[in-house]
């Protein structure tokens, strides 16, 4: 047998977009609330993670580790986002952000504030570890309150604001280029977002979704799974995934 | 001069060749590139033992793995051996730690002020760990000098896609990213791949390339976090008086010799990136290729800069300070590293040659002509004297270290049973060879 004719693990890991959470999806119930206003919405996600369990044969378990709320509002011609995230990782990590975006196809970032807090496993908050930051993006020049700056060649988005683009414009021809400012702090240029085909989720009722994949520097391939009403039911990173809990 | 602050920032399982500034065109690492520009890179830097816990125990105790007894991950450290946190506290330092620790058997809170306890997965912890490090630097009001240790996980998350069944990784995407997948290394064993060996790893060549692709992205993920901490430090009022050390606990197979993971003594697992920065005090943009350094030296270096005495029973570790300050110094002629993952083995590295010895065999490589370790010269008569010389170095090394003894029955034994006797008996037999 030649190397190139080996079956490879790509076949056994299919469908790769949901590989890490395939066990979790067996009991997955998609959000079925009708959503008509894709300009003003609130998305609530469960954050789950793949669990390393070397002694458990694949497929492996999944654990719920937090929550994420993304609220988008149009006010006076500006796009406002409110973000709230809480994760249980070595304690409790809180993140709150307010973001102003340009009113364009990608909701490109304009200015933002972000604050994080960390609570010890005992529940006590460590005041020294509160971090408040701000930033602006002026025609591709990103300046953080800390003094750090980056020069973007493409539109700049965050992981929270890119969803709107798919909800309103995602289709089989989607092919977008942008820079990612992850957590409004980490500059990851040369991102590409493109359609990656249809997929049927084998949950109890079955769910058909369209999948979009984001690749680029500093990220593991990210998959966005949107149903026929363009609700972002699932987002998978590498170990992490967001599972839609509600949309209003 | 006031005692300097010290930031020791470490990553986990980073291959020595994944920094763009060193010539790798397949990764984008602007932040580590900055460290390379602003500091001195040790290009012949090796971990003391290519596995997490032993290597980290070497960093923090200044002892080799067969001296502190953590010779493999599950083996706990002797509670009586002091670590850097405890040691520098005695010297007036505010010692803080955030992120991955992983020194088996040592409660971190007894040694450091723990900021964030971290998690076993880089994707989950590294950003939070970076934020606590940034907040600590920005918000601290303590007048004491500080020693901040920052433990990032990535690219260690590669252990998950490296699982034979692929773990959580999206290998099926590889076919769609063909033009973006990096090439296999020059010493990838094509015969191995053609032979299949499905009991080991049923991966196609494309799967291997995809593994390297995701590994590179993990390196880029942690590169961003490194940049956050380093930039914060450089912009802080501590900038002029802070020594910054960057290192990895060990490397990763990364398809070299068709391997993933660590524990073995080939360069991909044994050699590590190591950079020291202190603008104005440490030469910038220097890539030191001549001096072999070891992870165990980090404790000695930190103690030296902190004005602290060396940690007890420092036998092999040497401070890098004279190298960094341009002093004429007789540096080591050879370096020894050890492993107890699989069978017990050591590597002896000299300027040009490298031998990998276990209880039965010795392999020997000319690292100048064959840096990828593809031609074992141990049967070539022309190298017999050099091989003997390496054996002498190993014996000399054994006469310098104080081997951690076999604990009493039922005490201090890890999950893999009694591995102590294995190295104790071998080392004793080597010492008796002359």
Binned, the helix content of chain A reads under 10%
CATH architecture of the largest domain in chain B: 3-Layer(aba) Sandwich
Order of helices and strands of chain A: HHEEEEEEEEEHEEEEEE
DSSP strand count of chain A: 15
CATH hierarchy, class of the largest domain in chain B = Alpha Beta
User: Main beta sheet of chain B: strand number and arrangement?
Assistant: 8 strands, mixed
Number of helices of chain B: 12
Query: What is the annotated CATH architecture of chain A?
Result: Clam
Mean pLDDT of chain B: 94
Q: Could you give me the name of the CATH homologous superfamily of the largest domain in chain B?
A: Alkaline Phosphatase, subunit A
Enumerate the spans of chain A where pLDDT stays under 50 for 5 or more consecutive residues. Answer: 1-5
Report what the structure shows.
The complex is a heterodimer of chains A (248) and B (434). With 248 residues, chain A is mainly beta. Chain A has helices at residues 9-12, 22-25, 162-169; strands spanning 41-50, 62-75, 78-88, 92-101, 109-119, 131-138, 141-144, 149-151, 156-157, 175-182, 186-201, 207-215, 222-226, 232-236, 240-247. Chain A has one domain (37-247): outer membrane lipoprotein receptor (LolB), chain A, CATH 2.50.20. In chain A, 6% of the residues lie in helices and 50% in strands. Chain A has a 15-stranded mixed sheet. Chain B is of the alpha/beta class. Chain B has twelve helices and 14 strands. Residues 195-199 of chain B have low confidence and may be disordered. At the A-B interface, helix 1 and strand 11 of A face helix 5, helix 6 and helix 7 of B.
């Amino acid at each position: 047998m030649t190397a190139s004719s080996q079956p490879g693990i790509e076949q056994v890991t299919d469908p790769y977009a949901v590989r890490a959470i395939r066990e979790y999806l067996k009991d997955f119930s998609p959000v079925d609330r009708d959503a008509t206003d894709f300009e003003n919405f609130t998305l609530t996600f469960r954050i789950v993670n793949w669990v390393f369990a070397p002694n458990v044969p694949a497929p492996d378990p999944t654990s719920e580790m937090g929550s994420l709320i993304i609220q988008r509002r149009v006010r006076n011609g500006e796009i406002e986002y409110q973000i709230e995230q809480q994760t249980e990782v070595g304690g409790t990590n809180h993140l709150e952000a307010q973001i102003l975006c340009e009113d364009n196809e990608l909701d490109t970032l304009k200015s933002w504030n972000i604050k994080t807090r960390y609570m010890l496993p005992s529940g006590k908050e460590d005041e020294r570890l509160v971090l408040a930051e701000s930033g602006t993006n002026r025609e591709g020049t990103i300046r953080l309150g800390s003094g750090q700056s980056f020069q973007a060649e493409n539109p700049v988005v965050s992981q929270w604001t890119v969803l709107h683009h798919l909800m309103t414009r995602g289709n089989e021809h989607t092919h977008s280029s942008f820079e990612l400012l992850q957590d409004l702090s980490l500059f990851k240029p040369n991102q590409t977002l493109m359609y990656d085909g249809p997929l049927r989720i084998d949950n109890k009722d079955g769910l058909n979704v369209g999948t979009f994949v984001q690749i680029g520097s500093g990220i593991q391939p990210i998959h966005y799974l949107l149903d026929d009403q363009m609700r972002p039911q699932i987002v998978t990173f590498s170990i992490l995934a967001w599972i839609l809990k509600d949309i209003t | 001069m006031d005692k300097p602050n010290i930031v020791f920032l470490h990553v986990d399982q980073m291959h020595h060749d994944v920094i763009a500034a060193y010539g790798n065109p397949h990764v984008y690492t602007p932040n580590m590139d900055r460290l390379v520009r602003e500091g001195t890179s040790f290009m012949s830097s090796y971990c003391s033992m290519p596995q997490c816990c032993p290597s980290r125990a070497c960093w923090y105790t200044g002892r080799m793995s067969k001296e502190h007894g953590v010779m493999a991950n599950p083996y706990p450290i002797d509670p009586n051996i002091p670590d850097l946190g405890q040691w520098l506290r005695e010297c007036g330092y505010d010692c803080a730690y955030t992120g991955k620790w992983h020194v088996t058997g040592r409660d971190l809170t007894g040694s450091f002020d723990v900021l964030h306890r971290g998690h076993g997965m880089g994707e989950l912890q590294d950003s939070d760990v970076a934020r606590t490090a940034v907040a600590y630097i920005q918000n601290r009001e303590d007048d004491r000098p500080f020693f901040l240790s920052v433990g990032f996980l990535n690219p260690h998350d590669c252990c998950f896609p490296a699982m034979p069944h692929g773990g959580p990784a999206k290998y099926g995407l590889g076919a769609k990213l063909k033009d973006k997948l990096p090439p296999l290394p020059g010493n990838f064993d094509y015969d191995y791949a053609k032979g299949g060996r499905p009991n080991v790893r049923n991966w196609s060549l494309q799967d291997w390339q995809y593994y390297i692709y995701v590994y590179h992205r993990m390196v880029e993920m942690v590169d961003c976090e490194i940049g956050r901490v380093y930039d914060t430090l450089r912009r802080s009022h501590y900038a002029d008086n802070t020594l910054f050390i960057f290192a990895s606990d060990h490397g990763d197979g990364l398809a070299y010799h068709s391997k993933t993971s660590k524990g073995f003594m080939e360069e991909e697992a044994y050699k590590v990136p190591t950079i020291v920065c202190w603008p104005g005090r440490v030469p910038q943009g220097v890539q030191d290729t001549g001096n072999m350094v070891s992870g165990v030296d980090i404790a000695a270096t930190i103690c030296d800069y902190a004005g602290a005495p060396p940690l007890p029973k420092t036998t092999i570790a040497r401070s890098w300070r004279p190298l960094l300050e341009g002093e004429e110094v007789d540096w080591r002629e050879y370096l020894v590293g050890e492993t107890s993952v699989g069978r017990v083995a050591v590597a002896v590295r000299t300027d040009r040659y490298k031998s990998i010895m276990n209880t039965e065999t010795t392999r020997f490589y000319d690292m100048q002509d064959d840096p990828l370790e593809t031609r074992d010269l141990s049967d070539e008569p022309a190298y017999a004297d050099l091989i003997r010389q390496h054996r002498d170095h190993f014996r000399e090394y054994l006469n310098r270290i104080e081997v951690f003894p076999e604990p009493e029955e039922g005490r201090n034994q890890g999950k893999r049973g009694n591995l102590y006797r294995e190295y104790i008996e071998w080392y004793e037999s080597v010492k008796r060879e002359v």
